[in-house]
Amino acid sequence: xxxxxxxxxxxxxxxxxxxxxxxxxxxxxxxxxxxxxxxxxxxxxxxxxxxxxxxxxxxxxxxxxxxxxxxxxxxxxxxxxxxxxxxxxxxxxxxxxxxxxxxxxxxxxxxxxxxxxxxxxxxxxxxxxxxxxxxxxxxxxxxxxxxxxxxxxxxxxxxxxxxxxxxxxxxxxxxxxxxxxxxxxx
Length: 186
Fold this sequence. Notes:
Elements: E1 2-6, H1 21-29, E2 35-36, E3 44-49, E4 52-57, H2 64-75, E5 79-86, E6 94-98, H3 106-115, E7 120-125, H4 134-141, H5 147-167, H6 172-179
Helix pairs in contact: 2-3, 5-6
Family: Belongs to the PTH family.
GO molecular function: peptidyl-tRNA hydrolase activity; tRNA binding
Subunit structure: Monomer.
């Protein structure tokens, strides 16, 4: 079984923010063939088809690990893939890897604290704000994509969807070599 987790924050006020790119991708992956197996014990929206689970934690970003751990403890998947925004990558850059640091990402910190860091990652670049400081970072990740970014966002999500469809059939190294980008896909 494979668990794909899209990180984000619940609620309509966050739905179009940079921090919710993981949720956006899960919404694209899930279709009418998936069964909703959500439960309060999972602390998230959980969908299943055969040996594939899609999870959108509803714990808010900083507590994402609680939801991921609850699903992992119940279903015991062989692989966990986490989709998240990444400030350290320019907008449009996509990278695939296994393990590593959290780069200050609170969702990853939460998962790492409860389960360790040995999971696969789909890192979607959102770039950094031109302004410095913690409030600028928070404003950037919780801000909506600007007009130029919105134009490219669908291409990025299409690209990541294709990569994920391949990733569930093969390993992270093969997908990283084929799909990781240095300059972005736009």
